[in-house]
Write a structure and sequence with these properties.
The structure holds two protein chains of two kinds.
Chain A: E1 2-6, E2 9-13, H1 21-28, E3 47-50, E4 53-56, H2 62-65, E5 69-71, H3 73-76, H4 80-91, H5 101-114, H6 120-127, H7 137-146
Parallel strand pairs in A: 1-5
Antiparallel strand pairs in A: 1-2, 3-4, 3-5
Chain B: H1 5-13, H2 19-27, H3 30-38, E1 52-55, E2 58-63, H4 72-84, E3 91-95, H5 100-103, H6 118-145, E4 153-155, E5 158-161, E6 166-169, H7 170-177, E7 226-232, E8 239-242, H8 245-249, E9 254-260, E10 264-269, H9 272-281, E11 285-287, H10 296-306, E12 312-317, H11 320-325, E13 329-337, E14 349-354, E15 359-363, H12 368-379, E16 386-390, H13 404-412, E17 420-423, H14 426-431, E18 439-447, E19 453-462, H15 465-469, E20 496-502, H16 516-535, H17 540-546, H18 552-565, E21 575-584, E22 587-597, E23 603-613, H19 620-640, E24 645-646, E25 649-650, E26 668-673, H20 686-703
Parallel strand pairs in B: 2-3, 7-17, 15-16, 19-20, 23-26
Antiparallel strand pairs in B: 1-2, 4-5, 5-6, 7-10, 8-11, 9-10, 12-20, 13-18, 14-15, 14-17, 18-19, 21-22, 22-23, 24-25
The chains are: A alpha+beta, B alpha+beta.
Residues 36-39, 41-46, 56, 58 of chain A line the site of one FE2/S2 (inorganic) cluster.
Chain lengths: 149, 717
């Protein structure tokens, strides 16, 4: 039995130790907001937070979670930063197909929690791991800059 | 067109009303109670046409086009809401079921979403649908009040008779309206009175996309559902040689192993992780078959040979070849455009539940009728027994205009009687794409002593997507898409010869890719136009301007982009600007890109300036978004992307080998729109089409080196 804390709730799950968190969230728990895009740490669609730090859930085995608090896109709106990021995303109409945006929002929320006034270079560094095939980068940048904490 | 509501109502009166309906009914005024009774099972009260439905929940647009991220749910809803006189937030949007007779796109001649045609095809019909519904609803209210319809006014879905201070909501007269004749030729609003069209209305599909609640095809969950993933022959036409089914079945969580002939195999499990491990345990061996010796080199060689043959003539005007012989300056060149993958971020997937006499699928598809037929054929069921639940898509870019992923799901799972979600790994998605064709273009031109273009020839050699996808549109060997924007350019040209040689690549299936024919041909034409300007010592902007005297709309976007980009301002060393101009999808677009060549010889994209004239704009913010996204899509591919083949198999497997442009690599983008009241043109693909030429021309401007082969990485830039 593995114990995971996700968005403040505890789950006891009978799952293999080496199972990536991505598939636990999506397929075992039905929390499908976290997306599969590449499975090899290239796209960032699967980004979640472990104790507030953005990680790729496709590369994070349940073993490695080890008691850290997991936050997903379904829970990020309950944090002050997450709610502001979501609001800015809608205000700037960032979203097109939206498939990458869970991951983008999780990366942006982690960035802003550490750095409330990120420069363009800070944004590049924090967001370069998140691919958007629809090409919403201009607005992602605008939206992050528009957030004041 | 009115559904048979009378009989449904009669039927319902004789049966026990659903509790919810009853509760609602007793709380409602008399006029609504009848409607509630009729609609207690959620069935519509008023269905004046294929697109509009009114039930107790409100007003629904039955959406003929699919949402792939382009914003069509919002802009098409705006069209209907404009004439129906409701607010955008009063309209729900529902994906149309497969039904070509009602939902065919008049431009594509199929129930399909592609070719930047959606707004162009919905522009009239959705406004007409809204207007007809409005007239019927007003008619019902006027009759009830005993007044003339002209005395009534609608605002936000409420019909008002100001003189007597009476008001009725649409839903309150919907049941009466259903009995009224459907009016023909209702006059549409004067654009001067538009209150929604032309505004930056907020997208209706985005709130659920920022909190993880939006369900895409890949997110569908059904009771008792299992998860599967597949592997297909790495070489097209290859076959399974051997696999170890027992080993796969011993993996914890694996339920079943299924095959489709000897070309594909899938493992069904409790979750994707187990399914993937099951696939690994299979230790699959393949026979490559006839295509095992195919490589990019053999394909390109065959194209090169084919390109020496005379093709099917598309345009032959005023003896271009002869004109070139008389020219002072003669140019000729060969351009290469590579195979490209769609790589939508949502990998292909299909959830399917097959029962003995029916099947149901949940999938994001650009072609629901084809999807239904594919499942019917694979399962032996009649199409009407196959339900298609179309889902929002995490991108498509043309990939979901094909139904191979649905067909293979149905074939693999035809003997399974529980619901299964089949998800392709990124690796299968990328290596089994239907690719943008490789094109091999031969171009030549002649200019006279004054630097005027006097003759141009263009031979396009490449696959015909039409011949496979819509054979009916492939007439006399002409693929209208393969030569789109090659035969006809925005310029005033005297003598043109354009021909097309169809050459299908071995071992590769080709398909539509964002920007379709225009993406390839605008790269070639606009690069070559740039070559002409430089070869005759002319400024690339002025050279184009001179050829646009008869094309004021093209000239206007070009001039606007040039002004905003500061074309005549000098640039620091190492920087360059490139122009691209096009008329495609019935929209005019000019793109001026500024780049810097870094000391590392890498290209840094600095600034894209786009001027677009797409006629009447439904939602200017959506147009801007499509320009921004389209240009990134096109630039990223031009910079990095090609699909290559070795020993019959695709070399690129994931985003590490097929690089997608990232935020730190993206340019600043400015979009300027000209709105001139012309009928709407398409925008979803326009900016992709012009990106590569602007980039190649900017590189020439910065370095003096001409790139005639994409991607740049390949060209050594
Ligand atoms: S799915 Fe994890 S980074 Fe792409
Ligand atoms: S919005 Fe479609 S991938 Fe980013």
């Amino acid at each position: 039995m593995k114990q995971l804390t996700i968005n403040g709730s505890e789950y006891n799950l009978d799952i293999p130790d080496d199972m990536p968190l991505l598939w636990v969230l999506r397929d075992v728990l039905g929390m499908t907001g976290t997306k599969y895009g590449c499975g090899i740490a290239q796209c960032g669609a699967c980004t979640v937070h472990l104790d507030g730090v953005a990680v790729r859930s496709c590369q994070t085995t349940v073993d490695a979670v080890d008691g850290q608090k997991i936050t997903t896109i379904e829970g990020i709106g309950d944090t002050a930063v997450g709610a502001k990021v979501q609001a800015a995303w809608l205000e700037k109409e960032v979203v097109q197909c939206g498939y990458c945006q869970s991951g983008q929002i999780m990366s942006a929320a982690a960035l802003l929690s550490e750095n409330s006034r990120p420069s363009d270079t800070d944004i590049d560094d924090a967001m370069a791991g998140n691919i958007c095939r629809c090409g919403t980068y201009v607005r992602i940048r605008e939206a992050i800059h528009s957030i004041s904490l | 067109m009115i559904e048979n509501l009378q009989s449904r109502r009669a039927f319902l009166k004789g049966t026990a009303l659903a509790t919810a309906g009853l509760v609602l009914a007793v709380q409602l005024p008399g006029s609504l109670r009848r409607a509630a009774a009729a609609a207690s099972d959620g069935s519509p009260i008023f269905v004046p046409n294929a697109f509009v439905k009114v039930d107790l929940e409100g007003i629904t647009l039955i959406m003929p086009h699919t949402e792939v991220g382009q914003g069509i749910y919002t802009s098409s809803a705006m069209l209907m809401a404009e004439e129906l006189e409701v607010e955008l937030d009063q309209v729900r949007v529902e994906a149309a079921p497969p039904d070509r007779s009602k939902y065919m796109d008049p431009i594509l001649h199929d129930q399909a979403t592609g070719g930047s045609s959606s707004t162009r095809s919905d522009w009239m019909r959705l406004r007409q649908a809204g207007a007809a519904a409005r007239v019927m609803l007003i008619g019902a209210a006027a009759e009830r009040w005993g007044v003339k319809p002209e005395e009534c006014r609608v605002e936000k879905g409420v019909i008002n008779h100001d003189a007597t201070n009476r008001a009725l909501r649409y839903v309150e007269v919907a049941a009466d309206a259903a009995g009224r004749p459907v009016p023909e030729d209702v006059p549409l609003k004067d654009p001067a009175h538009f209150r929604l069209i032309g505004t930056k209305a907020k997208r209706i599909d985005t709130p659920s996309k920022v909190n993880g609640s939006q369900i895409y095809g890949i997110d569908v969950r059904l009771p008792g559902m299992k998860f599967a993933t597949l592997v297909m022959a790495p070489v097209k036409g290859g076959k399974i040689a051997s696999f170890d089914e027992e080993a796969a079945r011993t993996v914890r969580g694996v339920r079943d192993v299924v095959t489709a002939g000897d070309e594909a195999i899938a493992v069904i499990a409790d979750h994707m992780w187990a399914a993937k491990q099951g696939i690994d345990a299979l230790k699959l061996e393949w026979d490559g078959g006839a295509n095992a010796s195919v490589s990019t080199e053999t394909i390109v060689l065959a194209m090169q040979e084919a390109s020496l043959k005379q093709g099917v003539v598309i345009r032959d005007q005023n003896g271009a070849e002869e004109a070139i012989t008389r020219a002072k300056t003669k140019l000729d060149a060969i351009y290469h455009s590579p195979f490209l993958s769609h790589s939508a971020l949502e990998p292909l997937n299909c959830t399917i539940h097959i029962e003995n006499d029916r099947a149901e699928i949940w999938v994001g598809t650009q072609v629901p009728v084809r999807a239904q037929k594919a499942v019917a054929e694979a399962t032996g069921l009649a199409p009407e027994n196959v339900t298609v639940n179309n889902q929002l898509m995490g991108g498509a870019f043309g990939r979901r205009l094909d139904i191979d992923s649905i067909e293979i799901a149905a074939r693999l799972l035809k003997d399974i009687r529980y619901p299964v979600k089949l998800v392709w790994t990124r690796e299968q998605d990328m290596t089994h794409d239907f690719y943008r064709p490789y094109y091999y273009d031969r171009v030549a031109a002649g200019l006279d002593a004054s630097g005027r273009l006097i003759g141009r020839t263009h031979r396009v050699t490449g696959s015909s997507v039409f011949a496979r996808w819509a054979p009916g549109a492939f007439i006399n060997g002409v693929d209208p898409d393969a030569v789109d924007c090659a035969a006809e350019t925005p310029y005033d040209e005297d003598a043109v010869l354009a021909d097309y040689v169809r050459q299908e690549p071995d071992g590769v299936t080709t398909s539509w890719w964002r920007g379709v024919g225009a993406t390839h041909n605008v790269f070639v034409i606009e690069s070559f136009v740039d070559e002409m300007a430089h070869a005759t010592g002319q400024d690339p902007l002025e050279f184009r301007q001179r050829m646009l005297r008869k094309n004021p709309r093209a000239l206007a976007v070009l001039n606007l982009a040039a002004e905003k980009a500061g074309w005549h301002e000098s640039l620091p060393k190492g920087r360059g600007r490139g122009i691209s101009l096009q008329f495609a999808f019935e929209s005019y677009l000019a793109h001026i890109l500024e780049i810097e060549m870094l000391p590392s010889k890498q290209v840094k994209l600095l600034r894209s300036v786009i001027a677009v004239d797409c006629g009447i704009t439904i939602n200017p913010d959506t147009v801007r978004a499509q320009m921004e996204g389209g240009v990134i899509f096109g630039l990223g591919s031009a910079m990095f992307n090609e699909i290559t083949i070795t020993n019959g198999a695709v070399d690129q497997t994931n985003f590490d080998t097929y690089r997608i442009l990232r935020i730190n690599e993206a340019p600043k983008i400015e979009v300027y729109q000209i709105n001139n009241g012309e009928k709407p043109g398409g925008v979803g693909e326009a900016a992709t089409a012009g990106a590569a030429a602007a980039l190649a021309n900017a590189i020439f401007s910065a370095t003096g080196r001409r790139v005639r082969s994409l991607p740049l990485a390949q060209a050594g830039a």
